[in-house]
Batch of 2 targets.
Target 1
Amino acid sequence: MQTLASRGLHRLAFAALALALGLAFTAPAPAAPARARPLIVFMTDFGTLDDAVAICKGVMKTIAPGAEILDITHEVTPFSIAEGARLLGRTSQYYPAGTVFVTVVDPGVGTSRKSIVVHTGRDQYFVLPDNGLITQVARRDGIREVREIENPGWLLAGSASSTFHGRDIYSPVGAHLARGDDPRAVGPVIADVVRLAIPEAGADAAGIHGQVVALDGPFGNLVTNVDRDLFLGLGYRVGDAVRVSIGGTEQVLPYAATFGGVDVGKPLLFIDSRGLVSLAINQGNFAQQYGVVPPVSLAIARPVPR
């Protein structure tokens, strides 16, 4: 016979076991998603020999101390709006919605050109001069809204240089956006932006007519505006010889899948990571060897019938 005391102990043990089993089979509550850290992506033609880039980053971090600041480059060819537009368009597609891009390539600094914030169809923000820098981004992603920067409360207090708008205007505005301030407060909506005329490659009976638009970093590869589909539409296959004319100088290059498709020191034509026709030398510098300085005309002849 069980005593009252032993029955009470059994009941307590059973209750403890039931509670333990209940806890074991109860799924933990999901953790709240971490809030993304504000992201500013910075590009200029300032170079890195002096303190200009560091000053701009200091302004940004003072206003938005929690923001992460990443660099595209500060080695845009000085005053080259077209190069800045190309690099901005190339890079921005790999960043998430909500990213704030601060871009300063501004040969018209201090003149009547506007300073603007562009909100794109990709839900990214671009803080820059209205001089065509946004051209390739706008072309690809579309524009939701453009506002002119007019709110003095968003500018760097106590500083009003006519030659350093990267510090006084673009950096503080980018930081205000990154920390979550209302974009509508920056200034009034404007109808549109300045856009660059972008040269287009085309094909005719003779072949493709395009342009060498840039060099690929320190390697000296030629970046063109001829895309993969236009080139392959001529009927070329890997291994074929391709007759090209660069600024009127003709060469015959092998079409290779990659640099190692030719011997070291030999030139080639290939499709680069952008999906564009490029000319290179395996472990060499095409631009230096052949004296090519973009922009320069490019022609690609149709292949000889097989």
Target 2
Amino acid sequence: MNRSALPIWTTLLLSVVTVSGVQRPAAAQDSTAANAIFPGRYPYTDADIHFISGMIGHHAQAIVMAGWAPTHGASKSVRVLCERIINAQTDEITLMQNWLNDRHQPVPEATAGPMKMTMHGIEHEMLMPGMLSDEQMKQLDAATGTEFDHRFLTFMIQHHQGAVNMVAQLFGTTGAGQDEAIFKFASDVNVDQTTEIDRMQKMLFTLPRD
């Protein structure tokens, strides 16, 4: 049969199948089926969803930590750093929640606690890489002045390194990180937080020692 003789809905269906077949790698077969039918949009995977969901709580804890600077006698340089962290990561939480919402995925609240995951009908709690334990958060909250600066910078370096590791894990997962928004966000996190780690290490080195 001549292709031009096919009904128009059949021709459109063949076009959709062709587009999705080119853009959707085998490793991403478990991602949302409707995602692959839009030309120009790369598929997102379960790994992308896990990364974004976990990073919301990760950012939320950083905002809590940074928010203590004015009330805990932090130095001016640490307060400026904390303001930058709060502004940047608050905006990024909104971006991540919108990304999940636009794809009809569960949207976690921006709370600083462990990420909750349900596996085989059982809910589990898991801290994302680099996140502070309850004990570390108590230690930071109990510190003031120069001691707060020391603990904040030490703990935030740990926190940022965890985020960098999350990005590396994402990009190391076959089929993940191909969605344009995910790729840009994860790349920005990697660059920004690696840069801030270097800055905080230099700040930590120059702080007074007891």
